[in-house]
Amino acid sequence: MSNRIVVHADWTLGTINKNIYGHFAEHLGRCIYEGLWVGEDSPIPNTKGIRNDVLEALKNLSIPVLRWPGGCFADEYHWMDGIGPRENRKRMINTHWGGVVENNHFGTHEFFQLCELIGSEPYICGNVGSGSVQEMSEWVEYMTFDGESPMANLRQKNGREKPWKLTYFGVGNENWGCGGNMTAEYYADQYRRYQTYARNYGDNKLYKIAGGANSDDYHWTDVLMKQAHHMMDGLSLHYYTIPGDWSNKGSATDFDKNDWFVTLKKALHMDELLTRHSTVMDRYDPEKRVAIVVDEWGTWYDVEPGTNPGFLYQQNTMRDAVVAALHLHVFQKHCDRVQMANLAQMVNVLQAVVLTEGDKLLLTPTYHVLEMFKVHQDAEALAFHGTFGEYASESGEKLPQVSVSASKKDGKVHVSLANLSPDESAELELELRGAEGAHSCAGVILAGDAIDARNTFEQPSRVAPAAFDGAQVSGNKLKVTLPAASVVLLTLQA
Ligand code: AHR
């Protein structure tokens, strides 16, 4: 049966903050070391120590913001270990992630360098769990103070004359867990205290993000908002899509149609989380001044067989591509409250966009979705309504078959679509209302030859975007056939 979807080009829901297309890079496994940083003396071609092939791939994604250094690592990170001549930097144990030696060769200066090279805004996460108020305060002074001060002088001694521009600053990470195992009440007080000394120097104004809830912990959100909403700009939320449970998460590549269904259902749970957290926040902030910052999201599977369990290295298939599309659609739907989201993680960890092996690189299906969808960044989200079909699991549970999001920018309307069904195509009649004249349509599709289709170092282009010929335009109407398990982006020119 054909579904009918009407997109209202003259009815906008708000602006899609480009920062929902943000990323996250932690000192974890092979994300920073090997994935991004190879060092200036590496045979792998690099720019100031950062590998060129990865830089090129990331630049192409227009990544608006990058969160660093963690994650759990952030609450054990002492920033002074990562400045000054590299050969003198402290070697420490990365206790959270594999117990490996962290040589601190990638620190504050290298992070800002990376951000400059890929055109992203930095988002620094400070240490509340094991760091002091003074340490956090001095880090902000080191990065942003322009003038004569102990930390500004130290920065200059380390080769950086002018301060950097730093807007996004997180006050701790997962403080209910790896960031100190605190109660919401205790952390709310700590947040108030730590953030007091994270100063705005000169015209550098920090956008302060409080450590938020673990998935459906609405009590955490309630306490943080009640006690500290007037002292924050954003409150974070972490939610991972895990097909199984924490002790047996499921394989990234070896899955059946039931696992596919469960994974997509769990990905869509993000919609309920955002609705309910936002409703709690409305009690204290009905104007929605305080943003939800989903600074960790994505799939989390069992690690690839034979790899270090502490490195969280996983493959990425068409299932991840659909999960990414569903999340971005949900974030766009909640554009009134969600002002940033950071995919976990950038390279070689969890739902990565890039995987590397030695000097080789591949782009994952998730990468291609982010590349296709980047046209939504800073566009006006459009209202739509219609029927979206039904996709039933073997046990009769149902999800909508088609997921949609639409936006308008620079005279163009972009409609992104995902077909959740692993084996049935979807027919759509799409009508664009509120825009005059005839519409031309161009499309691009990401689809695999199987639901577990993926790119490997031997076959790096098995899953790649292609021109989409499944849409016929007639006036302001389109007939679209979406192949099973696919993601499509349509560009309509009024
Ligand atoms: O992204 C991996 C880990 O997941 C992060 O370090 C932590 O914040 C979360 O539990």
UniProtKB/TrEMBL annotation:
Residues 295-486 form the Alpha-L-arabinofuranosidase C-terminal domain. Its EC number is 3.2.1.55. Pathway: Glycan metabolism. It is an enzyme of class 3 (hydrolase). GO terms for biological process: L-arabinose metabolic process; polysaccharide catabolic process. InterPro entries: Alpha-L-AF_C, ASD1_cat, GH, Glyco_hydro_b. Homohexamer; trimer of dimers. This is non-reducing end alpha-L-arabinofuranosidase.
